[in-house]
Design goal:
By secondary structure, the chain is mainly alpha-helical. 80% of the residues lie in helices and 0% in strands.
């Protein structure tokens, strides 16, 4: 039952992450990408603080908050690297490598710690990895002169996000959403400092700000679902299914923006659906 609940929550989180990324992409067409990211993250912080006050907590929060701080540092580094990687134009490298590492590293750590899952879940994890790569790689331009730099940024982003996932997994259910709120404000500070140092705009305006605020609320909800899944375990199932977020982005782009879904992307989407079903089988 725990594996099934974890799979469902992680899948919900992936769908919401996909929606948040889609909204963030739309907002970035109307305002600077870094400003959109900071606005989104700041909105998420407000939502998570409100949720924390409503849900409450029990026990000593000092250790969970330290894990939240660690998650924020790792996530902030991941976002900065992802932002830098996408700026090189090699999205075909950045997207699949980042998503695969953010899912695979926590899964490897979980298995190394002795966690065991059934054969259906293992098959689902394998299919999920395939879906992540297929959906991400087949959706972007394959030509770029900065492939090497993009790969380095993608590796850093993937490791950063993986570190964030593993940090969240150490926080107990009794700590509520406070570790997420601490992580979010940490990321906001890191991104703001980076933006000021680089003399980039850190404040979105107009339609870009409004969409970024919506994206931040959706992203905070996604984080809540995924962290709950991580706490219930197995981490391997939660991290891999949560990394399926590119599927949601592709589907929204297809139905909202009427972008073309390529043949291999359709295969990846089908594999993702099969992966979710397999991992939910006890």
């Amino acid at each position: 039952m725990a594996t099934r609940t974890t799979a469902l929550l992680a899948t919900l989180g992936a769908a919401l992450f996909g929606a948040a990324d889609f909204l963030g992409g739309v907002a970035a067409r109307k305002a600077p990408a870094l400003a959109v990211t900071i606005t989104s993250q700041a909105t998420g912080f407000v939502v998570l603080v409100l949720g924390s006050l409503l849900m409450g907590w029990s026990g000593d929060l000092r250790v969970p908050l330290l894990w939240g701080l660690a998650a924020g540092v790792c996530g902030g580094i991941g976002v900065l690297a992802l932002y830098a990687g996408l700026a090189t134009g090699r999205m075909s490298v950045v997207a699949p490598v980042t998503a695969s590492l953010s899912g695979s590293i926590p899964a490897i750590v979980d298995f190394a710690g002795g966690t065991k899952v059934g054969p259906y879940a293992l098959a689902g994890i394998a299919l999920a990895f395939a879906a992540i790569v297929i959906v991400s790689v087949s959706g972007h331009d394959q030509s770029s002169e900065n492939a090497g730099r993009a790969l380095v940024f993608a590796l850093i982003a993937g490791v950063g996000f993986a570190g964030s996932i593993l940090s969240y997994a150490q926080t107990p259910q009794s700590s509520g959403l406070w570790p997420l709120a601490i992580a979010r404000v940490t990321a906001v500070v890191m991104l703001s400092v980076a933006g000021l140092v680089a003399r980039r705009s850190i404040v979105a305006s107009g339609d870009g700000r409004r969409i970024a605020i919506f994206a931040g609320a959706v992203d905070a909800t996604a984080n809540t679902a995924v962290v709950t899944a991580l706490r219930l375990g197995p981490i391997a199932v939660a991290s891999v299914l949560a990394a399926l977020y590119p599927v949601g982005t592709v589907l929204l782009a297809r139905f909202v923006l009427h972008e073309h879904v390529r043949g291999w992307q359709r295969v990846g989407i089908v594999l993702a659906l099969v992966a979710v079903v397999l991992t939910a089988i006890p």
